Amino acid sequence: MLHHAPLRLPRSLAPRLSFYFPFFFIFLLLPLATACTPSDHLLFPAHPTSQSPSAVVFDTDHNTTADFALLPAAPAHPRGALVFDDDEDGTPDRLFDLHEYADRNVPHLVVLLDSIPFEALRQRHAADPRMSVFAPPVKIIAPYPSMSAVCFSDILHAPPMPGPINRHYDPRPQHRAVNNLISRRLGGYRNPWQQRLHYNIAYRDNTNAFLSPHPWMKTEFERARRAFDDSPDRTTFVYISSTASMLFKYGPSALDEIFDELNRFVAQVLYERRGAVKISVVSDHGHNLRKTRWVDIETHLETGGFNVTKKPQFPEQPNDVFLEQDGLLTWFGVHTVRPVRVADHLLNLPELETVAYMQGPDVIVRSANGAAVIAKRDHQLTYTPTRGNPLAFPAELHATALSADDWLQRTVDLEFPDGAVRLWDAFHGGTRQAPQVMATLKDGTCAGIGWFLWFVDPHSTHGGLNQINSATGALTMTRRLDGVGPLRSHEVLDHLLPDGPPRIVSESQE
Question: What is the secondary structure of 377-429 as a DSSP string?
Fold first, then answer.
């Protein structure tokens, strides 16, 4: 079990402890109430006995003699092949060419991985023969904010989340309340996107995964494999959450272990199914791979004369603000009746990267480098700087009306990929009750629940608008992404699943 030194409460956090007690209770008590480390894991060898550009060889029964090989993609077998040496005499007995299985004839396993940066995925795919069973990754740009619930709702064609984070403000007159999905999740509630999954980690175990990500990642892959075995559907969706925990706790050093375990999982499924399966891997967003320090946004707002309220009757006074922040992320939101004043004050933070709010139907984005108006007319968007160039777009894109597809194609590799479209969408239906102000901190800093730092020391996080937070990828053994890309999150399944979006397979148990 975990042992912690006596906790010393930072003075700036002390008056807030009663407000955050439900979070504290979850983090402190759940690890004590459940097993610290699970024992489930894949039985396939963690590493090959030998590897070359022409064959990756395994000892699947762990008796020191090789009996199985994965042949990487080659002209003779464009998607790779599986070789079985049943009598272990060094001569292949059976060969299964993965290219021979038509997409429509075999089950499709879609593995949703949390927090995989695109460039890391691209480099690993290019260097690792085991990954050649997949076509090269297609770049995906996440919605904004780049957070799992928002992104996976898009990917799985689920209804938009009610708010960007679990604990959000519901301003509707019939509610005027704080909607706390954390307590509902503990009671069995499943977000709409999770209802489309055949496997995801139990909410009570998610805390343990952040505290002990190594064993939990291994357990999740094994439980996902079992869920695929038990699935009655032609297409099965499994979600591995603890890859995010790995990156959060260990930063870029965790990437190799994540990809190794993914390879192990893929190899075991291919081995068990004799290649008669199609596997796709889709991630939600990137991760900034930067050791991260916490910024006290609540105190900063208070120094500007704002009253950060916890009351559901918000606002009682014009300077009342309701701060939406979760975990330790580079994104936060503010409900306010004075968005310009809030933005003005937030721009005094040296850690701030961008702040955005609406002005009429338009979206204003600001940074230390200036301000710009994002406007939409006749289904085309314009980005018009009024001072400087906050999204650093080239001059030929300024005040130029472009379709959403053109914006993606022309900005996908820039510092703020598809930034104009994503900011517009964030305020126009990305979530049902978006805050009036949305802000992003620079990589290396984060906002959120400060006492989480007692339990975890973040070496990477996410949430923002820039390239490394926003860009992720999709791999597939099918032929459905050949020549396709880049894509937005909501477009991925349109290509992978031509027969329509995933169905609801596990409803809430509240």
Answer: ETTEEEEEEEEE-TT---GGGBT--B-HHHHHHHHTTSSSTTHHHHHHHHHTT
- Class for domain 50-290+469-496, per CATH? alpha beta
Closest alpha carbon to 285 in 183, 155, 449, 94: 155
Cβ atoms within 10 A of the Cβ of 399, count?
12
Q: Are 2 and 36 in contact (CB under 8 A)?
A: yes
> In this structure, are strands 177-180 and 235-240 parallel, antiparallel, or unpaired?
unpaired
Counted residue by residue, the chain has a size of 510
CA within 13 Å, CB half, 236 = 22
| Structure tokens that stand for 231 in this block | 């699935």
Kindly give, in sequence order, each residue whose CB lies less than 8 Å from that of residue 111, ignoring residues fewer than 6 positions away. 224, 238, 240, 262, 265, 279, 280, 281, 282
Domain ranges of the chain: 50-290+469-496, 293-454
DSSP state of 69: E
Q: In what order do the strands lie in the sheet with 138-141?
A: 235-240, 108-113, 278-283, 471-476, 138-141, 487-488
Q: Provide the residue-wise pLDDT of the chain in tens; the chain has 510 residues.
A: 233 333 334 444 444 544 444 444 444 444 444 445 788 999 999 999 999 999 999 999 999 999 999 999 999 998 899 999 999 999 999 999 999 999 999 999 999 999 999 999 999 999 999 999 999 999 999 999 999 999 999 999 999 998 888 777 777 666 555 666 566 666 667 889 999 999 999 888 888 888 899 999 999 999 999 999 999 999 999 999 999 999 999 999 999 999 999 999 999 999 999 999 999 999 999 999 999 999 999 999 999 999 998 776 777 889 999 999 988 999 999 999 999 999 999 999 999 999 999 999 999 999 999 999 999 999 999 999 999 999 999 999 999 999 999 999 999 999 999 999 999 999 999 998 899 999 999 999 999 988 888 888 999 999 999 999 999 999 999 989 989 989 999 999 999 998 788 999 987 665
Measure CA 99 to chain center. Answer: 30
Rounded-to-integer distance, Cα 46 and Cα 262, Å: 10
The single-letter code of the amino acid at 479 is R
